[in-house]
Amino acid sequence: MKTQSGKKFNLLFNGVVIVIIAVTAFFFIKYLVHSGNYEETNDAQVEAYINPISARVGGYIKSINFEEHQLVKLGDTLIVIDNREYLTKVMEAQAALEDAQARLIVLNAQIHTAQTGTYVNKDMIAAAKAKFTEKQQDLKRYKNLLKEEAATLQEFEQMQAKYDVAQSEYNAAGNSLKTTHSKIEELQANHALLEAEIKQKTAQLEFAKINLQYTIITAPYSGRLGRKTIQEGQQIQSGQSLVPIINENYKWVTANFKETQIEGMREGQQVEIAIDGFDDKTYHGTIEAIAGSTGSKFSLLPTDNSTGNFVKITQRIPVKIKFTDTNIANVKAGMNVIVSVKK
Q1: Measuring CA to CA, how many Å separate 189 from each of 44, 161, 234?
Q2: Which of 29-38, 47-56, 231-240, 271-280 has the lowest mean pLDDT?
Q3: Dihedral Cα 293, 295, 299, 303, nearest 10 deg
Q4: Domain range list for the chain
Q5: Within 10 Å of residue 343's Cβ, how many Cβ atoms?
């Protein structure tokens, strides 16, 4: 009995050993075949654009219209800032613009009045010139009469005085026209300054309206929000990061292959992607770009081999891989993946 039990045990043991050897041989051969046909790395992660949504203006948060990790669409209102201060600035800028526009209307009326006054000045010049010409002729006549002793010296002197008055009135009328023209030039110069001021006030009004619009913070594109770290009533500053948003419409894989693996790689090459979080699920993609340098060259403090402390380490080259599968909604940025590139 013991001999039969020993034989059965030996047969069972040998069978298990054979199975283990067969399974090991199968996976080893599979690995050799796969290694011969693919370049593989597990130094790879899913990437996506993660952008912070920042405040363009400061103020108190009036309301928050999202929850953590919520899916949002382009233009959805996320945060509303108390806008009373910015609304007041818009009203103030509007009033300043209307004041400048009213002053421009008054100035235009003054220019029109001054231009109309030039016609009156010209009529006064014409009348003064006619009177001056008349007195000039009378003085000439009296001068001849005085020589012929047909007029007295007193009458001549009276005519001389009238002539001087007419000449002064004629000169005054001409000077009045010059003064009016100078006044018009001054008003036109003020008109140009006031037009420039109106442009400035218009720009200030537009700037105030833009700041008012910034009190409503919307989603810059469709995606999934990150952690919620703000609360209603909180004071925020201009430029402060409020919540990150992940672009769900564009994801890719960054795989860091060893420098000895990329010799045969090219853009457009087919790629198989196995994600650690999803068993028995293989995604497909293509190589979109191969970095122009090793990853260490992009570091903040790249290595300097000229110092003499050189240790040769196999470098890795970042390779960008685009998903060709469309059903990748469950794929999250940062997930670890295993990438296999067909040789």
Answers
A1: 70, 42, 50
A2: 29-38
A3: -80
A4: 36-74+226-342, 83-214
A5: 13
Residue 137: its pLDDT value, please? 77
Query: H or E segment at 240?
Result: none
pLDDT at 86: 96
Question: Can you tell me the distance from the alpha carbon of 177 to that of 207, in angstroms, rounded to the nearest whole number?
Answer: 45
Q: Give the C-alpha distances (Å, rounded to integers) separating 11 from 2, 7, 8, 23.
A: 14, 6, 5, 18
Q: Say yes or no: do domains 36-74+226-342 and 83-214 share a fold.
A: no
C-beta neighbour count of 168 within 10 angstroms: 12
Q: Give CA–CA dist 110/98, Å, rounded.
A: 18
Q: State pLDDT tens for residues 254-286.
A: 999 999 888 888 999 999 999 988 888 899 999
> Which tokens sit at 254?
């960054």
Superfamily of domain 36-74+226-342: Efflux pump adaptor protein, beta barrel domain (2.40.30.170)
In this structure, which topology does domain 83-214 adopt according to CATH? Helix Hairpins (1.10.287)
d(CA 284, CA 282): 7
Strands (E) located in the chain: 38-54, 59-64, 71-72, 77-81, 216-218, 223-225, 235-236, 241-258, 270-275, 282-290, 316-323, 336-342
CA-based radius of gyration for the chain: 47
Three-class DSSP category at 328: coil
pLDDT digits (tens, 9 = 90+) for 205-246: 999 999 999 999 999 999 999 999 999 999 999 999 999 999
Stretch (H or E) spanning 184: helix 153-213
The span from the CA of 195 to the CA of 187, in Å, is: 12
Burial 227-263 (b: 16+ CB within 10 A, else e): eeebeeeeebeeeeebbebbbbeebbbbbbbeeebbe
- Can you state the percent helix, strand and coil of the chain, rounding each to 5? 50, 25, 25
Nearest to 219 by CA among 48, 53, 45, 46: 53
What CA–CA distance (Å, rounded) separates 278 from 232?
A: 38
pTM of the model: 0.69
Answer yes or no: is pLDDT of 127 > 70.
Answer: yes
Residue type, 216: I
